[in-house]
Amino acid sequence: MPTPEFVLDLREKVGHDLLWMSGVTAIVLDRAHENLLVVRRTDNGVWTPVTGIIDPGEQPAAAAVREVAEEADVTARPVRLLEVRTLPVMTYPNGDRAQYLDLCFLLEHVEGDPFPADGENTEARWAPVDELPDMPGRFREQLDLALSGRAEAAFRA
């Protein structure tokens, strides 16, 4: 799904000014925790786990589940919160500026074969956790948290 309607409505009021947004990263592992669901973004060609914006009033774990279904046509169940972090300010090609509070969740695959379902990605597939495609470092850090077995979420000071 492209930019959510509520963000477009906000942009009509604030223009390109910085928006503080809540987002999710979904670290989706198969049941054996040997493969990570990855997608190749349409906008920049970068491989990432599924990410997305939390809708107003939506529970964050439900947003992660929804984004995985929308972007990769996969059903997954949330297991635990892995990490909370603030991402750097982003400036989009049209001049819009946003900064995200990222809530990263571990999800386990329930059913479905990955497919780039909504146009946000050109590819969706399982990648062995020890043979990942090149992706930004924060996603590898989040995968390490998922595989660590650590029960509590990580927070940055």
TrEMBL record:
Record keywords, A-Z: Hydrolase
Top-rank taxon, per record: Bacteria
Protein's name in the database: ADP-ribose pyrophosphatase
Cofactor(s) annotated in UniProt: Mg(2+)
Chain ranges of the Nudix hydrolase domain: 19-149
Phylogenetic placement of the source organism: Bacteria, Bacillati, Actinomycetota, Actinomycetes, Micrococcales
Organism: Brachybacterium endophyticum
One Pfam family named in its UniProt record: NUDIX
Molecular function, one GO term: hydrolase activity
Keyword Glycosyltransferase carried by entry: no
